Write a sequence for this structure.
């Protein structure tokens, strides 16, 4: 039965074309349906008096928006865009319409959700960005590993270990050290624990060529066990709710309206997210190490024939990835809650992988993906305050729906590094 | 780089001129042995390479040529034996050691990273740097352009390798070797995918390099080339050195005999064709390439049962896209493909296969096989779901094994066993597996693109006989080959493809090398005007 795959592979080029046609079809119909739903909803459940008050924080004017009209207009847009995509064959036009549709979805949802109420857009955005920190960092960790050809599904476990160990060391040290110093040591321990876990992954999957999914799963399961054991043994008696990493408002910039609150009033690991996205990008595309890493992830034999040490390259990249995942772990315990709970990463490591794939294994793409998922988290929280008539589960689905539209409609097929997950065998052909 | 010049300096005083086997050999291997599970790939091989000479290495598919070269280049570690560079014994742990000793290699199968640009591919491993961390792409790009200009290897340094046709990819591989300024250059079948003109270009480069003191090991199955460029020839058979020959006193025939160990017929016998009804009809076919450019421009083509139609043409004139469109690997923009009158335009490959089509693809590793699958599984890739290989939902392992055993024997595939992953076979033997698989089904239409690429003379002889046998059994054969000799010796009708169209279709008795050569360059000579495609006629008149 295993032989079934190749024929499908052989058919791929033609097959892809066929899917393309269906894809447009599906999305056009989806758009039309959504547009009609919006229009009907606007007429039936909203009145002309309904308005949504958008606020942007201190020092900025509030913006009242007529909910019904906005809903109607966007409904008409979706319906029209769907119809245009159905009848016109121009790929460029379709792409643009689809892109606008995707972006438009976010404000439309906010406005509808906050009908007859007010919502602070600035806070929503700043919370989104903050919540995307571990996801983006996790995605960067994934990029370092996978670009060199080691698939890493153990980001979750590495984060969890980082969150736990960093916090434990912090609680042990805090009686004797200033809080800031103890926290710093804690963060460093988080980073190193993530790195240590990744060395286990490297050892299993690069040197021993174990199946990388299995190795990653083992690490994830192990992390849950070890961290909850440590929590019970060490943290049980110690007082919870300790201080978190102090905010670092950036002078001058943080005073700017809107932008200041969103970008310049964060805490250290939050800023590290931006730094690491840029560092990862520069590393991948402009440095020797990055070129070699990409070559090793795509065609390790070719890299080997040119004298690149494939095994060493992978070990180092996996280690760095693990350290980044460890830092993401510190975000949970040391930067955000000031405590450690069992399984507190709650699947963000996997969401990070989704963000990485969303971004086609590129740092900025993954960053965008991470923000999208962070936004989804933030909206989920917001809906609960607002008491929206639509079941919150549906509204929480929106970012994922956007993801599907963007991934399937715009980004196209995500292409993993060719050698991702394939151990390198020097003498195998 | 400096270190290498020092090596060269050591040698400078020796009296060895090009081709004269005196002085300390720049490279000497003795008693080199390599075992793979089930095969003794190299059995105590000894060989010497002198400064400024071209040593030809000949041998059947699977004789162990690539294995030997891979050991010299550090990709494989020898089990026994010694390698000396400039008289000094060395251990080559990896390609890095080889590169730092001035050894360069162009590999039989491309070692390129498709998603990277030409510049990135070329400089990988010896990057031009700005500071200690950052790449200096500008400098590398400039050096590549310099090399390209100096040796006449035209290439766009910014193109992605995956967008380049195979011939150009081979050029990139050669540039990679030149970029590293090797003193000892190993060329493992570099001409397999080159046109005769491109091969001539490569020989020019090799001569320039020799004049500069480089020594070259050249591997090829094309005996004519070996006779032309080599100073000395060594022959391997079953992992052993079986003889040496002097190209000046040898002929293609004598080399072939030395290689295969029996008399080989270089020109196959064939009876006149008895063409019957149309099998393949291609009408006004338009196909675009990967970059969206029109590669096949409203092309018409008919192949009849019992006839071999050979498509000649310089590579990159749309042959690849044409074949892909006919076999369902690429969707044509417009036009029709009919097989036995049935419209199969844009149908998936399986439908086309089931219509009785066999396809020997141009890029065997990409479209012809699954590298990690066993030979036996690769032999049933299109038929695994049918009787006798599958009963209800289960495969019949016995039938699959029996089929593989039979084909391995019939086609003389050199493999340790039918369960060996095909990726571990030598290049030529991989090709034989594909040919065996395609030819073992009852065919109405056979599409063979470069069917003998990388095969040794003995295997070429066999496959040529099989193609003719296919024709005599009533199959229509569409043969696409960059080898003019192959086209001329097999075809009953020759169609010449130029710039995405067939510019002329000649019966074989009117197709001589000269005429076809001119047509391949897009020139319609007067005596061939009557065979030109109507559209071209208008163009050349007006
Ligand atoms: N990595 C490997 N693992 C197992 N067997 C191998 C490997 N590489 C080569 N072999 C075997 O060693 C033998 C010699 O192969 P090699 O590639 O050196 O042949 P070759 O002379 O280069 O042939 P060709 O002309 O077809 O390229 C073959 O039988 C092949 O199956
Ligand atoms: Mg070989």
């Amino acid at each position: 039965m295993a032989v079934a795959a190749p024929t499908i592979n052989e058919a791929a080029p033609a097959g892809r074309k066929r899917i393309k046609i269906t894809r447009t079809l599906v999305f056009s119909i989806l758009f039309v349906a959504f547009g009609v739903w919006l229009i009907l909803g606007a007429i039936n459940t909203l009145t002309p008096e309904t308005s949504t008050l958008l606020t942007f924080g201190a020092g900025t004017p509030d913006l009242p928006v007529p909910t019904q009209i906005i809903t109607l207009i966007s409904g008409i847009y979706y319906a029209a865009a769907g119809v245009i995509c159905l009848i016109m064959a121009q790929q460029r036009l379709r792409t643009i319409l689809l892109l606008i549709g995707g972006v438009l979805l976010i404000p439309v949802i906010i406005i509808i959700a906050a009908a007859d109420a007010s919502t602070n857009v600035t806070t929503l955005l700043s919370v989104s960005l903050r919540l995307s920190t571990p996801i983006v960092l996790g995605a960067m960790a994934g990029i370092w590993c996978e670009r060199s050809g080691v698939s890493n599904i153990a980001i979750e476990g590495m984060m969890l270990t980082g969150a736990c160990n960093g916090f434990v060391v912090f609680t042990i040290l805090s009686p004797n050290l200033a809080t800031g110093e103890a926290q710093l040591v804690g963060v460093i321990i988080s980073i190193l624990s993530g790195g240590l876990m990744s060395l286990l992954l490297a050892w299993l999957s690069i040197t021993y060529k174990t199946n990388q999914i299995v190795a990653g799963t083992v690490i994830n399961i192990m992390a849950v066990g070890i961290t909850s054991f440590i929590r019970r043994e060490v943290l049980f008696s110690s007082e919870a709710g300790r201080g978190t990493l102090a905010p670092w408002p950036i002078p001058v910039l943080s005073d700017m309206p809107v932008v200041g609150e969103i970008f310049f009033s964060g805490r250290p690991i939050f800023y590290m997210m931006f730094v690491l996205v840029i560092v990862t990008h520069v590393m991948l595309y402009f440095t020797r190490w990055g070129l070699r890493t990409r070559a090793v992830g795509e065609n390790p034999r070719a890299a080997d024939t040119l004298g690149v040490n494939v095994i060493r390259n992978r070990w180092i990249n996996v280690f760095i990835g693990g350290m980044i995942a460890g830092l993401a772990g510190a975000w949970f315990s040391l930067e955000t809650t000031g405590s450690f709970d069992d399984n507190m990463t709650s699947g963000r490591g996997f969401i990070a992988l989704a963000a990485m794939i969303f971004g086609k294994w590129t740092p900025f793409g993954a960053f965008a993906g991470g923000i999208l998922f962070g936004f989804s988290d933030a909206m989920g929280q917001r809906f609960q305050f607002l008491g929206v008539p639509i079941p919150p589960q549906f509204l929480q689905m929106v970012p994922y729906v956007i993801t599907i539209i963007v991934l399937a409609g715009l980004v196209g097929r995500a292409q993993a590094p060719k050698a991702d997950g394939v151990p390198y065998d020097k003498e195998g052909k | 780089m400096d270190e290498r010049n020092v090596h060269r300096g050591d040698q400078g005083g020796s009296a060895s001129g090009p081709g004269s086997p005196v002085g300390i050999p720049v490279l000497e291997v003795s008693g080199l042995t390599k075992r793979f599970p089930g095969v003794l790939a190299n059995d105590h091989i000894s060989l010497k390479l002198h400064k400024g000479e071209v040593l030809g290495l000949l041998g059947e598919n699977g004789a162990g040529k690539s294995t030997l070269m891979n050991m010299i280049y550090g990709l494989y570690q020898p089990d026994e034996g010694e390698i000396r560079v400039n008289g000094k014994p060395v251990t080559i742990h990896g390609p890095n050691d080889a590169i730092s000793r001035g050894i360069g290699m162009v590999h039989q199968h491309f070692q390129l990273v498709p998603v990277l640009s030409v510049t990135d591919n070329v400089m990988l491993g010896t990057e031009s740097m700005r500071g200690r961390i950052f790449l200096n792409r500008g400098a590398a790009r400039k050096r590549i352009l310099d090399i390209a200009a100096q040796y006449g290897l035209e290439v766009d340094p910014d193109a992605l390798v995956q967008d380049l046709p195979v011939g150009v990819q081979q050029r990139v591989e050669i540039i990679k070797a030149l970029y590293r300024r090797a003193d000892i250059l190993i060329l493992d079948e570099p001409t397999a995918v080159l046109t005769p003109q491109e091969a001539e270009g490569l020989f020019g480069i090799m001569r320039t390099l020799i004049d500069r003191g480089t020594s070259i090991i050249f591997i090829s199955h094309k005996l004519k080339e070996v006779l032309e460029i080599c100073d000395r020839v060594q022959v391997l058979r079953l992992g052993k050195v079986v003889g040496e020959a002097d190209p000046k006193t040898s002929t293609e025939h004598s080399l072939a005999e030395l290689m295969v160990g029996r008399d080989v017929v270089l020109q196959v016998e064939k009876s006149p064709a008895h063409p019957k009804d149309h099998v393949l009809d291609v009408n006004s076919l338009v196909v675009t390439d990967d970059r969206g450019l029109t590669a096949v421009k409203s092309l018409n083509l008919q192949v009849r049962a019992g006839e071999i139609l050979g498509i000649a043409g310089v590579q990159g004139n749309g042959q690849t896209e044409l074949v892909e469109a006919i076999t369902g690997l690429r969707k044509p923009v417009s036009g029709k493909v009919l097989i036995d009158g049935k419209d199969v335009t844009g149908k998936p490959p399986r439908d086309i296969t089931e219509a009785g089509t066999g396809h020997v693809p141009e890029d065997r590793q990409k479209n012809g096989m699954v590298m990690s699958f066993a030979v036996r599984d690769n032999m049933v890739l299109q038929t695994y779901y049918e009787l006798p290989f599958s009963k209800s939902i289960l495969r019949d392992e016995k039938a699959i094994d029996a089929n593989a055993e039979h084909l391995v024997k019939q086609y003389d595939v050199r493999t340790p066993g039918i369960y060996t992953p095909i990726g571990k076979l030598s290049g030529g033997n991989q090709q034989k597996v594909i040919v065996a698989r395609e030819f073992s089904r009852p065919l109405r239409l056979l599409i063979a693109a470069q069917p003998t690429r990388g095969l040794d003379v003995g295997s070429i002889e066999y496959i040529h006989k099989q193609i003719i046998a296919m024709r005599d059994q009533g199959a229509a054969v569409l043969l696409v080959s960059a080898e003019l000799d192959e086209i001329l010796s097999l075809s009953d009708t020759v169609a010449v493809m130029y710039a995405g169209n067939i510019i002329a279709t000649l019966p074989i008795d009117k197709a001589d090398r000269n005429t076809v050569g001119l047509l391949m360059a897009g020139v319609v000579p007067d005596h061939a005007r009557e065979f030109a495609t109507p559209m071209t006629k208008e163009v050349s008149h007006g």
